[in-house]
Amino acid sequence: MTTSLRRAIGATVFCLATLLGVSPASAGELLQVVFDEPSDDRWMYAFNSMPGTRPAAPVFTTFTESEDSDSRVAQFLMGWETASRIPSGLPPQRYWIKSARLTLTTLRDRSFIYDPTADPWETALPSGDPRAIPDSDAGRPLELYGAGFRGGFTAGTFREDSPFGSTTPGGRNAFAAGFNAAREPVDVSNNIGKSREPFLPFPSRPFAVGVITHVAAGDAVPAGTPVTFPVDLGDPGTRGYIQEALRSGRLWFVASWLGRSAGQTGGFTYPDFATRDNLLDPGPKLELEVVVIGDADTDADGLPDDWERACLEGLGASGEDDSDGDGISNASEWALGSDPNDDASRVAVRGLHRDAGNRVTLDLVDSGSGALVVESSADLQRWAPVAGRLDFAAPTSGLWHSDEPVDAGAAFFRCRRADSGVR
Ligand SMILES: [Ca+2]
Ligand SMILES: [Ca+2]
Ligand SMILES: [Ca+2]
Ligand SMILES: [Ca+2]
Q1: How would you label 267-286 residue by residue, b for 16+ Cβ within 10 Å and e otherwise?
Q2: pLDDT of the residue at 26
Q3: Cα 218 to averaged position of ligand 1 atoms, centre (Å)
């Protein structure tokens, strides 16, 4: 990126902040933003007759092969217009997110069991599946995901009273979204519950699992209980999702629960949360701590001063320094979106395998968010991008495979971040 473009982005921060009534001085400071209610919330259930105004949002799953329902049939969709509080429009990496936390409040008394930990996905497979394993702890955790949209809608255009979409599996216009091993967003509404194409089961990693204080694991949850979801920012997919949402000015989450509804006969056996339309109990509350990284670099070390202050406690370190001793310079940590003060957070190639057909596999650690571009070179001078795909079963480590054989003379490989706003 050229210096003049850097200046232009810096100016953009200033203008946006002024337009939105936020003090320009807030760029670089820790913004502690509390949204007491969402801009939109909606019980995403096909037969909800009061879309956007219903005071309660139950969450449950139906385990059926039928063609008339998603497995995660009842979801709670929540959206926040963030641009009035956090300047929008910046490259995603300019949002240094310190914490993100959602709190929901239960409505029904003792209608579900508290399970504070994620259950392995194989525990939700039918017992006839050879991969099925027993659930080792009582109940199902409350799960938080991002949201995806279809049917002509986007995160920017969907509203709480927009059409539901089709009731067939994979047909709802707003759905719980996680990430696959290629770090692509995917609909997780049917990741469990069916056993045929195109809805074969697959693992899904929630953005957060609900935490309840004053209720023991395995106990029934009373009415009026706050459930807190601390978003896992160590997962680059999740962090990148929030960064992109702040850029666009609209952040969406979906609460889901992999437990059965008891239907018409068994009473209420699922969680039920207050929406913002509930007059008695608090609706969804979102708390974000974000530093918006401006462009100023007064000590001319290539590192934005805001980022240095946010992560490195001042301007003392340089771009060449490796402040956390993880082998990655501060300049590279900034360029690749990892934490320069955490030696577990880095982007690195741990190994390289080249087969007889010149296909290349890289063993990668990638704690940064955003798409990774792999380039090859024969002379360390000219670099060419190589098409490939990620296979990341774990959040921050996995393999990258080239799609095509690489040039036989290419001996060097490097990674950079696409569209991060830095180079
Ligand atoms: Ca469990
Ligand atoms: Ca600096
Ligand atoms: Ca480092
Ligand atoms: Ca680091």
Answers
A1: ebbbbbbbbbbbeebbbbbb
A2: 61
A3: 9
More confident residue, 375 or 6: 375
Using pLDDT thresholds of 50, 70 and 90, give the confidence band for residue 66. confident
Helices (H), 147-281: 236-248
Q: From the CA of 313, how far away is ligand 4's center (Å)?
A: 15
Span from the CA of 342 to the centroid of ligand 4 (angstroms): 4
- 105, 221 Cβ separation under 8 angstroms: no
pTM here is 0.91
Q: Is 135 exposed, middle or buried (0-12, 13-18, 19+ CB in 10 A)?
A: middle
pLDDT tens per residue, range 278-310: 999 999 999 999 999 999 999 999 999 999 999
Q: Which residues surround ligand 4, an ion (CB under 5 A)?
A: 324, 326, 338, 345-346
β-pair partners for 391: 399
CB 282 within 8 A of CB 105: yes
